[in-house]
Amino acid sequence: MIFALVGRPNVGKSTLFNRLVGGRPALVHDTPGLTRDRRYGEVEYGRFRLDLIDTGGLDPEAEKGVIGAGTSRHARLAVAECDVVVMVIDAVAGLTPLDHEIASELRKSGRPIVVAANKVDSIRREVLAGDAFGLGIEPVIPVSAIHGRGIDDLLDAVLERAPVPPVPTPMPAETDAETEATIGSGQETGPEAAREERPVRIALVGKPNAGKSSILNRLVGTERALVHDEPGTTTDPVDTLLEIGDRTYLLVDTAGIRRRSRHGEDIEKLSVALARRQIERADVVVLVIDAAEGASEQDARLCGDAHEAGRAVVIAVNKSDLVRGATALREIHKKLRDELHFAGFAEAITVSALSGDGMDDLFSAIDRAAAEHRRRISTAELNRFFADVCETHPPPPQKSRAVHIHYLTQARAAPPTFVLWANHPELVSDSYRRFLINQLRARYGLRGTPVRITVRARRGHPKKPQRQGRPPNRPRPRNRRR
Ligand code: GDP
Ligand code: GDP
């Protein structure tokens, strides 16, 4: 489910975007010639994970210099891509001619629209939202992006209007209770277990002409595959659901992959933005590279984005039919390692979409990466690791202060995220964390997935690792929407 924020400048779209994505970094993409960046983010709401686009605004004035010139290409594309549009207005400033014009453009798009009357910072101001009914669009939800008022109402209204009901996405363990449950038992329970059951979400990304749509056709053309297109509100289906035996995969934004390959070079920039959104929505990112060309800077960036977003990565080295000989192929793989800094953890699979060679290997690598991405290491196992590695190689003292580490827990999966409890977290260096990550990989594999370690404070003397105990006090995550 994708929704977009549109509206004239200064109504508070950026502020609302930040509020909705809850402080997680947005993927910002600047598209030359357009008025402002278009940002993609992910909104976690109850059991749902929604994708959000901030268009930077339907800004007809800026584009053509006059009112009445029509919507910007930018926002039009975003509107075409989304399921529900949130039109943001400034309740304090009241409606302007530009708001009316934008509303009429949006009505033409045929998308469900929700009006967010922003800057209603207090109950007293709620009366101001009344003005918004003048647009003739309902519902009107009074919100305050700055103070977080009305945000849940807004999201409820968006969900109600979604043409396709969003699939509930189990969330990673976040509360103490959940963390405790999963850590304490060392078993796949609760949210994580449910996550196991949903299809593996796959994004195919890479430069135009690398062979993404050819690989897509091969994947969906696999014998035994049952294919359902997931309807979007655009004429193209958005995602493709693939069932092979008892496994299901969701290929995300297949419409985007096909569309891009039709238009070719001129929307290369835009394809990067789309790829970033695909990455946000995926569990496993398949980076498709043309073997004859090698990896470009753009590929390296996409790989970095996937890593940063915590997604598993598989590299598909495509068009291997054009490469003569095993030595040349080995050279290509070696060069890839140098060119893609973040890809050290990823498997690179040689394929040819043309001949179909390597497709089974690609599926296996995707399965492996997805499994490692969801991996949970039992507390008993982590205790052994702690004793062997952390205790025998503790972090060096910093500024003549001793750094005590207490124990290691796994806070969540997808990607595997560990918490190292220490007396002075600020004194645990990045290089020590990298050391631990490498040690975790050496022992448990974790191939294809990013691995994270965060360091948290715990006072007192180091204890033996606990099997059952409650994790040390830490602040409950604040409910960021209130
Ligand atoms: P955009 O151009 O639509 O993205 O608008 P911005 O998010 O940049 O906000 C424009 C201005 O409105 C900024 O000065 C914000 O601080 C302010 N603003 C945004 N949301 C609120 C709100 O809920 N209440 C108030 N009082 N001001 C807001
Ligand atoms: P996309 O833009 O990444 O979706 O790339 P396409 O799938 O449209 O492929 C771009 C071009 O590369 C097309 O002409 C394909 O026929 C060709 N192509 C794709 N895969 C292969 C392959 O494995 N071998 C060869 N020789 N050509 C390929």
Mean pLDDT metric? 78
Kindly report the spatial arrangement of strands forming the biggest sheet. Answer: 2-3-4-1-5-6-7
What is the terminal-to-terminal distance? 23 Å
Number of H- or I-type helical stretches: 15
What small molecules does the structure contain? guanosine-5'-diphosphate
Whole-angstrom Rg: 24 Å
Work out the strand percent: 15-25%
Which regions contain 5 or more consecutive residues with pLDDT less than 50?
24-37, 63-71, 170-196, 232-237, 464-482
SS class: alpha/beta
> Could you say which overall geometry the principal axes of the C-alpha atoms support?
globular
How many E strands? 17
**Helix content class:** 25-40%
Largest sheet: 7 strands, mixed
What oligomeric state best describes the polypeptide chains here? single chain
Layout of helices and strands, plus pairs?
Layout lengths: L1 E5 L6 H9 L5 E3 L8 E8 L2 E7 L5 H5 L8 H9 L2 E7 L6 H13 L3 E6 L21 E3 L8 H11 L14 H10 L4 H8 L2 E7 L5 H9 L4 E6 L8 E6 L2 E5 L2 H10 L4 H14 L2 E7 L6 H12 L3 E7 L7 H14 L7 E4 L8 H15 L5 H12 L14 E8 L4 E6 L7 H15 L7 E6 L25
Parallel strand pairs: 1-4, 1-5, 5-6, 6-7, 8-11, 8-12, 12-13, 13-14, 16-17
Antiparallel strand pairs: 2-3, 3-4, 9-10, 10-11, 15-16
The structure holds guanosine-5'-diphosphate (2 copies).
